[in-house]
Predict the 3D structure of the following.
Amino acid sequence: MGSFVKVNVLTRLIIGFSALFVITTSVSVYSILKLKHFNRASVQMLQAGDRMLGYKDQLSDSLLSEITYEKKFVITKDNMFYDRFVEAGKEFALSLRGAADITDTFGSKELLDSIARGHARYVALVGEERSYIRSGKPYRFDRYKAEKETVVDAMIKDIKRLESYVASNTKTEIEGLARSGTGALRTALIMALLSLFLGVVIAGGITHSITKPLSVIKKKTREIARGEFDNPLKLSSPPEIEELAHALNTMSKQLAETEKVKSEFFALMTHELRTPLASMKAGLILLQKHSERGEHERQKVLTIMSQECDRLIQQVNSLLDLSKMEAGIIDLDIGFHDIKPLMKKAIAEIKPLSTSRNIFFELDYSGKISPVRMDPERLLQVVRNILGNAVKFSPNGCTIKISLKPASGGFEFSVTDSGPGIPKEDRAAIFDKYRQAETAVQAGAKGTGLGLALAKHIVDAHGGKIWVESEPGKGSTFTVFLPG
Amino acid sequence: MIISVTLGCASVQYDRFSADLQNASDLYAHGDFEGSLKINQDIVAQCDHKAPADQALFNMGLIYASQNYQRKDFKRSRTIFQKIIREYPQSPLVAQSRTWIGVLSVIERSKEADIEVEQTKKKLGR
């Protein structure tokens, strides 16, 4: 039973159909063999009966010939008739031996012995009479005639009884065959019913073993559709279903994670959107209540409100860009551009923030970088994002290394920070939307989780590649490759 | 003298019936068994145990034994031949009559044997 659990659906079906085939074939073969046996037995029985009746007819004919020739010999005293009598006697003896050879019952053997004895007596009487005739001596003709008639009558009765015996024996054998046939029919019927039952059990069992786990999977998919991701499926048989269940569990787990990430993202986005809005509302209240404040103060509040407004717009734009990227409806303004000015611009933009935290950049531009095909605005977004993350996650007073060098078929630029690093299991996930590494969450870094997802989409759209190398506690290196 | 007279008488009598005998023989040859039988019977009646009564009796025996005679009667034929032997012991036809009696006897016993065989056949169901 344990090994059957590992049997796949196709093998189960083959086993099931083979079992049904074997059962059906067994019943058919049994029936055919029995029919063959009955046919053979019937033919043999009828042939034996026919042969015995044939010998009986031969005995009758030979005896009649003997009687005829014997009578004619006694009347005419012609030896020719005696010779014919002897010939007929030989034929009679031959038929008697033939009948004795095929008889297999005590009754018929006894009858044949009796006929043989009677015949011997009849031949002896005719022989004695012949001696008298040849010698010409008078003899008791009537006594011989009467004795011969007695012997012949007894033989005739025995021959008639032999016929009746053969008929009776054939009838008995037919009755035996009929009884045997009824028994075989009963056995065949029982076998047919058993095979039908077994067939139903096997077919039902195999169908059940396939459909039951499918029903469980169907039920589970409905649970998933309702958002119930707990209680993973535990199906181990058949192997295909086990694989399906495993895939469904994986999908369920991923859906649960996505659901969780989405919830976190919405919470984060809500917070990220509410913070600048709250800040702007606070600024407006301040301006309303303290309208008597000086121009300088008002300008300061308006500047803050404007920055918060920009931050809001930037976040909404990022979200919109990502949606467009995913939908494949964003247009890139591709052309041949130099990457270095782009890098410088990004560094210049982040410099006020990095300087305030005593973070410095170490640049390494080695080799000649030819202009490459790119959308400079989009690629600037990528560089800004990577640099921003590096500054965000690096501790105060550290150095961020920026490298730009030619690579096979294009160029690479990489940014190495001194942040908390990214665990191995998060390295692929950080490029998914709404995802941040666990270490980033622990570090309390704020972010929507859209930046790297957006960067990956942009790099992919350029035919390039983005990846990260990291060691927890020792920082991370983000590398972008763009084709030349 | 008596013998010569007797032979003479017989000869005279034979001559007297020779035409009738010839007539009877002709009728027999032409298949008129009844006519031949009647002439022979008349001769026997007229001859009174004298020749050619033995010849006429012999002829009658042959007629009753004839295969083509519708009223053939082997028993009667045999009786006639036995009468010749018994009543005309000196007749030259005695030897032939004995032969005929033997033949008719074999035929009759053969018929009986055939009947017996037929009965046996019936018993055997053949």
User: Anything to note?
Assistant: The helical segments of chain B are 2-29, 33-47, 53-65, 74-87, 94-124. The longest helix of chain B spans residues 94-124. Residues 1-9 of chain B have pLDDT under 50 and may be disordered.
